[in-house]
Each structure stands twice: as C-alpha cells, then as structure tokens.
C-alpha cells in the first residue's frame, strides 16, 4: 500500500510543484526501511509519468491563443530562438541539461520538461535522462534519510 501511496504522491508532486516528494519519500522510508528501493522506484516512475504531461504540454503549448500571442513578442521570440540555437545539433548539451535539471532541480525540472517539449527534444532523450536524474535524486534522498536515521538509533 505504501508503494502505491508514494507512486500517487510522486505523480501529484510532478504536476504540482508545491508537493514535496522528497519529504514524502524520506518519511515513507523511515516508516518502512525494508521497502526503500521499491519506494525509490515508485517515486522515480511516478515523477516521470507526471513530467511527461509537462513535456506533452510543451509540445502543444502553441495551440493556446494567449501563448501564441506571447511567443510572437520580440523578447519571447528571441529567448526561444536562443534556446533553439543552444539545443539544435547539440544532443549532449540537451541531454546534459535535462539530466542536471532532473537530478538537482536547477533549472526547475517542470520548466525544463516544458522547454524540452517546445524544442521537440526526442521523447526517449527526455524520458531516459529524466529517469536517470530523478532516480539519482531519490537515491540521494535515501542516503540522507539513512544517515539521519542512524543518528537517532
């Protein structure tokens, strides 16, 4: 049951950044240390399912009339053009940025997921770098939680 709770919470936290999956994961692991890796997997997969919606939203964001109007403004258009230039023909830069964002959260991964969709980053690049980055992030949470738990034993 805890697995599915963490899984659901991780999807929710991917969609609503105010929900802190790291805190939920840490508390869940402290309650069931034997389920650690299952909970890390649940959080990782759940987060990516939620982030896929951000990615998909980025791919279709230009369908919203107010977004289209905003993207036609010179400043917004110049910014988007700069990102296209940075990403175009530089798959390692793009994958690296997605991985760093997924693992450390800077730039915020929800924003990066939308940008990946707008820039039409191949889905498999987005998904694999996100799985690896989120998995590493949650593995670090596990390590931190374990360290704190040992202090109180």
UniProtKB/TrEMBL annotation:
Highest taxon listed in the record's lineage: Bacteria
TM helices/strands, residue ranges: 6-29, 36-56, 92-116, 123-142
Entry keyword set: Membrane, Transmembrane, Transmembrane helix
Domain (VTT): residue spans on this chain: 24-139
Family stated for the protein in its record: Belongs to the DedA family.
Entry protein name: Membrane protein YqaA, SNARE-associated domain
Organism taxonomic ancestry: Bacteria, Bacillati, Actinomycetota, Actinomycetes, Propionibacteriales
